[in-house]
Amino acid sequence: MSRLLDRTLGQEIAISLALATDLRRVRVDRVQFEASLINLAINARDAMPDGGKLSIEARNVIVLPGSPDNDLSLVPGEYVALSVMDTGRGMTPAVLERAIEPFFTTKPPDQGSGLGLSMVHSFASQSGGALTMASTPGHGTRVTLHLPVADASQADGEGSEEGSTAPAAGGKLVLLVEDQPKVRLVLKRQLVRLGYEVIEAEGAEAALTRLREGGHVDLLLTDVLLPGPMNGVALGAAALSLRPELGIVLMTGHASERLLARSGPIAEAIVLRKPVDRDTLGRALRSALQTSASGGTNI
């Protein structure tokens, strides 16, 4: 990707590579990996308007319980640690704390969506790894991705079906419940690309009204935190009382464990952590469809 990075960064930013010669293979989505690296490079470029240096390092690490590399509770094992560092203006502690939040940005409205770092964070966590950041105002930023090493069969390409992005929705209809318009739009686009038909609702009452009106609905995809007295967990239970055959998938960004407490017919509903990438969303919805079709619980 060196030529692409050169074009992205421009002549004012020098690129330094320090890649271990014995790097292990990792099993990740190639497109998402490349997009994540470009996102990090663009953030670094924007932090260095007067030029600077972008350094990319990669090394093998073994994470042990309680080791310095395990501050994000990584599963002990072998990882490749990929670090992207810039010499830019850096971030204050307050900005650093919110940097991976979806739609958070310090850029003007027409210059940034606030989704870049949240997408990179989502890619890392859903690949079985983690993202860490360190930054000091005036001294640059370091972003590190820990990506799990593939075992021998995965490195040889076995099991590639699991990460397939091929639509398998067959025109199934999803009731999407999300109160934030921008997030709802992103999710709707993902669902359409996966082959689903979509109807939308901003809250629990609107969703239940649609279910009571009749018409076939195959899946309920709802945020846990919703406006009004009924959260997504309660909505799922109410929806199942109306449509016992409904597949249920919950989404949460930072809901408390109290809100996620589930019982009865929704006790084992699938829960996705936001932001969620399209592959993970597709697998979750297919699983919910399969279990609802077989008369089982959504596990």
Written overview of the protein:
This protein is an alpha/beta fold. It is 33% helix and 23% strand. The chain is built from ten helices and ten strands. Helix 2 (30-46) packs antiparallel against helix 4. The longest helix is centred in the N-terminal third of the chain and has 17 residues, at 30-46. The protein is elongated.
List the helices and strands and how they pair.
Elements: H1 2-9, E1 13-19, H2 30-46, E2 52-63, E3 77-86, H3 93-98, H4 116-126, E4 130-135, E5 141-148, H5 152-155, E6 173-177, H6 181-193, E7 197-201, H7 204-212, E8 219-223, H8 232-242, E9 247-252, H9 257-260, E10 270-273, H10 278-293
Helix pairs in contact: 2-4, 7-8
- Record the strand order, biggest sheet: 1-2-3-5-4
Count of helical segments? 10
What is the average of the pLDDT values? 79
Structural class: alpha/beta
Helix content: 25-40%
Count the E strands: 10
What would you report as the Rg, rounded to the nearest angstrom? 21 Å
- Biggest sheet, in brief? 5 strands, mixed
Q: What are the low-pLDDT stretches, counting only 5+ consecutive residues below 50?
A: 152-167
